[in-house]
Amino acid sequence: xxxxxxxxxxxxxxxxxxxxxxxxxxxxxxxxxxxxxxxxxxxxxxxxxxxxxxxxxxxxxxxxxxxxxxxxxxxxxxxxxxxxxxxxxxxxxxxxxxxxxxxxxxxxxxxxxxxxxxxxxxxxxxxxxxxxxxxxxxxxxxxxxxxxxxxxxxxxxxxxxxxxxxxxxxxxxxxxxxxxxxxxxxxxxxxxxxxxxxxxxxxxxxxxxxxxxxxxxxxxxxxxxxxxxxxxxxxxxxxxxxxxxxxxxxxxxxxxxxxxxxxxxxxxxxxxxxxxxxxxxxxxxxxxxxxxxxxxxxxxxxxxxxxxxxxxxxxxxxxxxxxxxxxxxxxxxxxxxxxxxxxxxxxxxxxxxxxxxxxxxxxxxxxxxxxxxxxxxxxxxxxxxxxxxxxxxxxxxxxxxxxxxxxxxxxxxxxxxxxxxxxxxxxxxxxxxxxxxxxxxxxxxxxxxxxxxxxxxxxxxxxxxxxxxxxxxxxxxxxxxxxxxxxxxxxxxxxxxxxxxxxxxxxxxxxxxxxxxxxxxxxxxxxxxxxxxxxxxxxxxxxxxxxxxxxxxxxxxxxxxxxxxxxxxxxxxxxxxxxxxxxxxxxxxxxxxxxxxxxxxxxxxxxxxxxxxxxxxxxxxx
Length: 622
Fold this sequence. Notes:
The protein is of the alpha/beta class and 622 residues long. It has three domains: 10-140, no CATH class; 147-261, 3-Layer(aba) Sandwich (Rossmann fold); 277-457 and 483-512 and 550-618, 3-Layer(aba) Sandwich (Rossmann fold). It is 47% helix and 15% strand. It has a nine-stranded mixed sheet with strand order 10-9-8-11-12-13-18-22-21, sandwiched between helices. It is elongated and about 115 Å long.
């Protein structure tokens, strides 16, 4: 019954536990007297045995040690057994001391018997459960049903992961090896399992039918991680990873919490080392305004700002529901209660002025923008009114209210723009850089490429297409993009903001550009699907304003290094404020007429390097 799939009745376990503690008491006597128990002690067992068993039975009933399902025995069950037996032993100790004074200075039970019984009871009761669990696992799962796994990481997290898998007898995980890039631990054994080097994964996979590899180590070098992931994907080995400890339930890892790895995890690069003290000095006790606060970039900036104890963060966005979700996240999960939620539009200067007047922000992080290239190509008036006029409104108010720093979140599409969106961001860059020449406010621009998982990026789109059965649509087989994770991009925004002195355009090191078709293929494999069989890739052609390769610097620009190896400073042509202001005001006036060609023509006049691609506006370049 114990080893079958049906659950064993509680009374059955209770009887077995009763028999175990009976054996434990008798064994304690045998061990105490080297298996030659004196006659007087044998006679005393007539009343000692019922007394000790009564205490143990009361303990079992109180602690409900028999109530757990044996096949799911965990450390919590062992803790409960230890507590019940220890308390029972304490009761026996007290009774024994009392008997000493009423029994002519003689103990009813030798103290050594009580101690030995406690140790043997705990050992036997726990061992019984572990043995049953192990036998159940071996008898109910055939070799074909067991899942051979490899754990990457032979440290504490790797060991916790193995033990979590061992507790889950239903799934039948069998850890065949640990892998670790730390040479000091290689060829050693951890809980009877060998620790191997990453380059030995192939031979492990050949020797055992590996079903899953679990990353159970933080800060794995990205080169090693991607090499292992590529091998696994090419050999139909599932890849999973252990979540951060804050996501564990009650501080304990369960096998059900181990998650399938995402493409974002494989595109992450080495951890960024920030100037934490400089950022804290910049943020601590200050009032901070974040525009576009409900967006993917803005919300992450807000989350990271909370670590540095600002006085107030003003969350400004026109998206009502995402702003409400962010408010709940800040209060319930991050326990940050100094946020002011304000719904509004950066185009509404009166609304913005009310915020500057009331909250007097010291720093502004401007992330609000329209950023979809095809959408802005069709609606240039919105790109002008939000990306240019909205930025001008904020910048002018920041100057008027003597904001200390204004950090503008720009894009790599502002470099040699081929579309309206990129050109609008470039014009906004030019304006705030020119305004920096006459203002006490330090205007800083940050420029980076595509952000993994951000609203409108290819990752969520591919994910949705794959989950719907395909096809996965890509504009061109040769198209490439630079990618950065949302946290990484926002960390660098904070770093550049803290270190900038005003007038700079900071360019982030985006690493190597990624071929979009390779990204899609890898995502399909991560879902366990076969390209061409389970799902198809379809090419749709470049969209209006889209180009094959993104650039981070204008051809007339160069860069100089900064304090941080991932942040460069672009050396760009500077514009006169009066000149650019007149041009922008003329552009805003043109927007009121809704003539797309006149608006885009003026944008090209302001930004001569703006050459349209795959767009009807190409006629303006001839």
